[in-house]
Amino acid sequence: MADDLQTQASPPVDRFGREERGADSARAPAPSAAPWHHGRRHRGGRPGAPGERPEPCYAALDLGTNNCRLLIAKPTGSGFRVVDAFSRIVRLGEGLIGSGRLGDAAMGRAIDALGVCAGKIGGRRIAHARLIATEACRAAANGDHFISRVERETGLKLEIVDRETEARLAAVGCTPLVDPRSDGAVLFDIGGGSTEVVWLDRVDTNDDGPPAAVIRAWVSVPLGVVSMAERHGGVQVTHENFEAMVNEFRPHLGGFVAAVGAHDCGRLHLLGTSGTVTTIAGVHLDLPRYDRSQVDGTWLGAGQVAAVVDRLLAMPFAERVANPCIGAERADLVLAGCAILEAVRRCFPCDRLRVADRGLREGILVELMRADGVWNRSVEDHP
């Protein structure tokens, strides 16, 4: 499958794949993060009078090769507030690289998770929703059949999006974390079956919402943590295995590197979104359990990233399983993700990496809300 190169002018996550709890009382992001609301009074949020219809929400669902994730949110004065969330590792793409098809067990796991999502969506007054599926459904010979089965069994109508859309949504979701004093960021979204890399900048908008994404170049590589781990192994990973993964991935970035051109990496920074980089941040911080409020927006230096990758490479598999920021569901995938990250770092040896615990779902919500003009209204005008 050829790479696609184009140029043009999220609540706490359970690291063990269990569903997220509702986030009405979610902890505020850490001071280093760019929160979705910036200290202004929330629009709405008042308990309704008896018989009054609840405020409308927006829903975003992302069914990937590895995870099924849902966010339901309400607009605020300058962003949105998550009111319910769900995340479960389903490994929809398990075995896809060998068979070219989605397996029965994998489809069953995904449909079970989507049934939970359908219940959460059905329990809210939803103004608009977008429900997307990505690489596993794009690549599988029976992807369309699976989408039809999902609609029959859960009532959810999923949209298989192309890679350009996937890259754009990740960029929109992560744009608030781009350092406005830099020359932009090299954003990478390491998925289960594909990886999107974007040269991203930000620009202020004419409304009160989040800054808008400026995508200068992007590439989608048909390799992710699931496909790399199945190809090279994820349980026992030697330095030789690790370098083999780096060397397989790195050539796919050649066209993107050429599109970015000669650039002072001191003026760029890396911006990573995915379980790989959030895991690296959690391990670096030695968190006793994963905590989004401490991870989202965290800055890591190049030496700190390298130290964590070396530490993970030296860990026996059982120790990775026992680590509270990795867990059994990710222990065989994290080093494949680290190899993809290392390939990006070798192409763009930037001094700084910012970690994003946000991405596609947040991008969907921003696009839906901006299309409705929710940030064009004054706080007092919002219901």
Automatic annotation (TrEMBL):
InterPro entries: ATPase_NBD, GppA/Ppx_hydrolase, Ppx_GppA_N. It comes from the Bacteria. It comes from Ancylobacter crimeensis. This is Ppx/GppA family phosphatase. Pfam families: Ppx-GppA (PF02541). Residues 1-53 are annotated as: Disordered. CDD domains: ASKHA_NBD_AaPPX-GppA_MtPPX2-like. Transmembrane segments: none annotated. Residues 15-24 have a biased composition (Basic and acidic residues). Residues 1-10 have a biased composition (Polar residues). PANTHER family: EXOPOLYPHOSPHATASE, RETROGRADE REGULATION PROTEIN 2. Residues 25-36 have a biased composition (Low complexity). Residues 72-369 form the Ppx/GppA phosphatase N-terminal domain. The lineage of its organism: Bacteria, Pseudomonadati, Pseudomonadota, Alphaproteobacteria, Hyphomicrobiales.
